[in-house]
Amino acid sequence: MKHLNKKITFVLCVLSFGLLLSGCNVSLTKQNKNFAEKKLKKSADSAIEEWFKVDYAAQMDQYQQAIDYYDGMKDQFSQSDWESYQTQRAEWVKQIKEFKKNADLQKKYGKEKKKEVGKPEYTISSESATVNITVQTEKGKKLIFSVSYDKKGSQTELRIEEYKTLGQKMGKAGLNTIMSMAIVFVVLIFISLVISCFVIIGILQNRKNQKMAASVQIAPVPVQPSTAVKAPSSEEDLMDDLELVAVITAAVAAASETESADGLVIRSIVRR
After folding, report:
1. Taking all residues of the chain, what is their mean pLDDT, rounded to a whole number?
2. Calpha distance 144→106 (Å, rounded)
3. In what order do the strands lie in the sheet with 142-150?
């Protein structure tokens, strides 16, 4: 019985929590009266009707003519007026780009609304709201108009996209996948080629170093002059011996108090 009571209590808590969240969601979306679906739908219809009525090509030409006119009057402007005009000119250029985009859409899909397709889609939060309406034009093509509003109910943005079926979306997604994979493979092949080039460069460099080593000639080492005393020739030896004999004989004669050295005979000389 206790286990059954615990289960019932748990289920009631879960249900209460779910109701609380749903109540919070309803309060967030319905608290702002400006986000009432009927009011948003009416405002979005007016914005779409206005888009089809406007001739964006003509407005683009008017802005471009104004820019050309004032650009030619630069000499007549003061410095401050010219700077102010440059700010305004930047806004005009931005507006021209937007007009050109809308003019291209009108040219491709038509300038008249034929009917709405399906039900509007609402995205509502506490700060903003968006209404998506699919429209079929006079040419039988479809456009998706997304009208955004702030919390005061003022229109903040109007975006237009081409309507695409599920098959078209899948085809585009598949094409994007194929392109991404192709880019990845191309990059990998390029990296492989770069790595192989490094190997080839290393082989060529080794061959070049080998050729340079083979072509280098060893320079002859200069022979330093020897400091050793050259051996005297036989004639020089003979003259030195005779002089040495004469000196020794004179010394011996002087030591023996003999005036003449005729009686002295030197038989051998030993050099040390």
Report:
1. 78
2. 13
3. 113-124, 128-137, 142-150, 155-162
